[in-house]
Amino acid sequence: MDPAHTVVIVGAGQAGGTLAGLLRQQKFPGRVLLVGAESDPPYHRPPLSKKYDGEDYLQWLRPESFYADNDIELRLADPAVGIDRAARTVSLRSGAVLPYGTLVLATGAKPRALPVPGADLPGVLALRTLTDAVALRTAVLADARLAIVGAGYVGLEVAAAARARGCEVTVVEREERVLARVASPELSRILTDSHRARGTRILTGTDVGAVLGDGLRVRGIRLADGTEIDCDTVLVGIGAVPEDNLARDAGLECLAGVVVDAAARTSDPHILAIGDVTHRMHEGLGTLVRLESIPSATEQAKQAAAVITGTAVPPHEVPWFWSDQFDLKMKMAGVLTPGTEAVLRGDPGSGSCALFHLDSEGIPRSVETINAAADFMAGKKFIGSRTRLNRTALADPGTPLREVTQDSITPPAA
Q1: Is residue 92 helix, strand or coil?
Q2: Structural domain contains residue 116
Q3: Are 6 and 31 in contact (CB under 8 A)?
Q4: Do 219 and 250 have their domain in common?
Q5: Are residues 248 and 232 in the same domain?
Q6: Which of 62, 217, 331, 377 makes a 20 to 30 Å CA pair with 99?
Q7: Torsion angle, CA of 392/381/357/15, rounded to 10 degrees?
Q8: pLDDT tier at 168, thresholds 50, 70, 90
Q9: Closest by alpha carbon to 89, among 33, 27, 13, 38?
């Protein structure tokens, strides 16, 4: 087949797998190759942290037969190692050289390593792949002692599942609060209280100085102040680093990820990039951002499919995220912005509430919800439409959401 009509997708994760399916759904007639570093076909990653302790942590993105049935060529366990932009080829570790008309980088991100002595001991785990989830599932048994370094969403989700199994869990976070980089102080307090009430030990403002062990297995961690915490397993969850080496080596523009425009285009007209590896231009936010989320990866896959098939690029969605911890189902929309005021709707003690973050004009820039689906949907809509809200009405759960906009508030009688 003419290489000009060949799409090579490097990265068989959520973004890459979604794009391959979309191309066939949109009747792309050319050759589609999906290249992956792992030996497994694309699978859903959120269950790896949310459900690793259950039976449904393994969820394929598509049935395995889907790829053959739709003429999608899978090249698994054979990562790309180089790009020749002039020749428009990509080389694989096996020595295979694949010509392309369009190359799509969907290489994702890798866990940030813990830079302390002992971090390479057996029993120090990360959580990004199916193999990682299997190792964690095996290690975290009832009565096991788990130390989690990093109180981000992955760390807290794993902590919740481990506590439900009866494990002893200690979470160590170098920042002064959990989720310091991605959540508001108000939500951080609510989640910290919830985890501590369920027996999780949370230490903030604390660095890990070393991982302790006998050379064969972890036996604990030592904090920067010298305190030692006994444990059987250490999970490191201190963020992720975009896998952009392939792009950098090829001379593509990178800035904490592969820089792409509003339609997933890189600095090379024949190369697109999607998913966690990208530093993307988001029209709704008006700036470059790196969004590590399934909705963002799916949205960019739709953008790339439109570019490849020559159809209209869909408008940008309001960014949104979700997390499950214990019985708390959280959904967040928008991006936290400095200078906003948090308006609490509902009672955190009831298990259902929402935090709307309004700017000086009363326009919501983000919303964080716990077991409050209606508030999430309304907040996401308000953010997208830049609707001004009345703070007093919004804070009153008795006021219907359709009546919290400025225009819907009836002014008091003179």
Answers
A1: strand
A2: no
A3: yes
A4: no
A5: no
A6: 62
A7: 160
A8: very high
A9: 33
Q: Are 92 and 150 within one domain?
A: no
Whether residue 9 sits in one domain with residue 88 = yes
d(CA 75, CA 55): 28
Structure tokens at 214: 């006998």
Q: Which residue has the tokens 């969004």?
A: 291
CATH number of the domain enclosing 38: 3.50.50.60
CB distance 156 to 325 below 8 Å: yes
In terms of DSSP H, where are the helices of 273-348?
Answer: 294-309
Those residues with Cβ within 8 angstroms of residue 146's Cβ, 6 or more apart along the chain or in another chain: 139, 140, 158, 159, 162, 167, 168, 169, 170, 231, 232, 233, 234, 235
Strand partners, 8: 33, 103
Q: How far is the C-alpha of 57 from the C-alpha of 47, rounded, in Å?
A: 5
Closest CA to 342 of 197, 192, 191, 188: 188
pLDDT value, residue 50: 75
The helix or strand, by DSSP H or E, that contains position 219, with its residue range, turns out to be strand 218-223
Q: Which of 208, 238, 268 is the last residue of a domain?
A: 238
Q: Which positions ≥6 away from 262 have C-beta within 8 Å?
A: 280, 281, 282, 283, 303, 313, 316
Q: Round to whole Å and give the CA distance between 214 and 122.
A: 10
Evaluate if pTM is beyond 0.70: yes
Helices 294-309, 14-25: axis angle to 10 degrees equals 40
CA distance 244 to 379: 34
- Name the nearest CA neighbour of 64 among 82, 41, 35: 41
Q: What is residue 389's DSSP assignment?
A: B
For 14, the enclosing helix (H) or strand (E) is helix 14-25
Encode pLDDT of 317-371 as tens digits.
999 999 999 999 999 999 998 899 999 999 999 999 999 999 999 999 999 999 9
The H or E element containing residue 342 is strand 341-347
Q: Taking residues 36-52, what's their average pLDDT?
A: 87
Residues 8 and 80 grouped into a single domain: yes
| Residue type at 283 in one-letter notation | E
